[in-house]
Amino acid sequence: MTSTLASAKGNTASHSPGPRGLPLLGNLPAFARDPLAFFCHLRDEHGDWARWRLGPKRCLLVSRPEDVNDLLAGAETTFAQADLGYALHAVLGEGVVTSTGEDWRRKRALVQPSVRPRQVRSYASTMVECADAVAGTWQDGQRIDVQREMTRLTQRIAVRTLFGVETAGREEVIARAMAVAQQEIGAELRGVTAFFPGWVPTPGRRRLQAAVAELDAEIHRIIDEHHAARAAGEERDDLLSRLLAARDEKGAPLSDKELRDEAVTLYIGGHETTSTTLTWTWHLLSGSPEARACLDAELAEVLNGRLPAFDDYARLPFTQALVKESLRLYPPIWLISGVARAGARLGDREVPVGTTVWASQWSVHRDPRLFPEPDAFHPERWDPDAPTPVPDHAWFPFGGGQRTCLGARFALVEAALLLAVLAQRWRVDTDPAEVKPFTGLTLQPSRPIDATVRCTT
């Protein structure tokens, strides 16, 4: 590494080293070609504080875990929410992820009780039931598209736990809309359209608007059904029903628009992240016979052929380690940012007002100073007795601080339980060719990951 935080000149971000950029565009072309490689290049060539420009925006990439933690801890105080772009805002609306200030605090207080551990426990049986149903449809020697199978599974769970319904047509409507959102958010993030005003009607935005309209119609139809059920005195135990019943300090409920925004946010958090994590986990497991043997041994000892329950999550430390290592190598949320306000600091250094500070899970999770053999799949690094423990704040797939993803617990439990159910009955041998990630709303495989499933009994 050519520079470190200690060797950087001055004591503010404006004195930090960084690459030269083009007039007007800054470093946008290099970022657009491959954002993940670009961030690793900044880290390796320009140090822990790397100055760059995204078009006209002054930017700073931080790579030290301590600085990442300060950035996350400073959300809502010294760092404002960065402009997330037209496409992301069109999908998420004004949900708990995109809102700020008092509006964010109100919504977080209303949403958080719906995803506490007690509620996650109540949904574990649904997770296991759905996974067991999928396991029963596979046949020995069958070829599958891993991502498609994991997506269908987590969609079914999300629709049942979030909306309290199970209709294949509804899953498909939401899935089609989210697939378009993935593509268009990624395209806008890496292109010049990110700087266009929201009213500019690009082809990509028209595609996105059509998909969001379809998504909104479906979700509002489900909300109307829940209103009718509630008026009729029907008791439901899904997440949407809990949100309908929630009241803020003034006794006010969430509006239908707010319910829509939170439903989409929770759907993405409870489905998109888990399906992607499981897809990468199967691919990583397929290339590591040692890890697969350890998983088989743990499942045989703890479960002995029975289906897991919520309490088994704590008894499956290696299964948890597989999920954590997959999240390290392929974090679904691969980028966080904040805009410096007056008085913003990271460690002992000042950050000029208006600077957009970025931290990338991808580049920090693959920093060789923090993770020996950073590109290798080593689940054992998560063993509490490992010789080289994971440094504090070096792993943040769900963000951190006050704005930690509310669905993190749901996603971790879901991924481990689904993996346990399926792995007891099946080996998933993926094709060995390299699969590069695509930087969209979440970090998706850039092509289908095909596999052959083999019965373990």
TrEMBL record:
Gene3D superfamilies: Cytochrome P450. Heme binds at C405. SUPFAM superfamilies: Cytochrome P450. Residues 1-15 have a biased composition (Polar residues). Residues 1-20 are annotated as: Disordered. InterPro entries: Cyt_P450, Cyt_P450_CS, Cyt_P450_E_grp-I, Cyt_P450_sf, Cytochrome_P450_Monoox. GO terms for molecular function: heme binding; iron ion binding; monooxygenase activity; oxidoreductase activity, acting on paired donors, with incorporation or reduction of molecular oxygen. It comes from the Bacteria. Its cofactor is heme. Pfam families: p450. Keywords: Heme, Iron, Metal-binding, Monooxygenase, Oxidoreductase. Belongs to the cytochrome P450 family. This is Cytochrome P450. It comes from Streptacidiphilus pinicola.
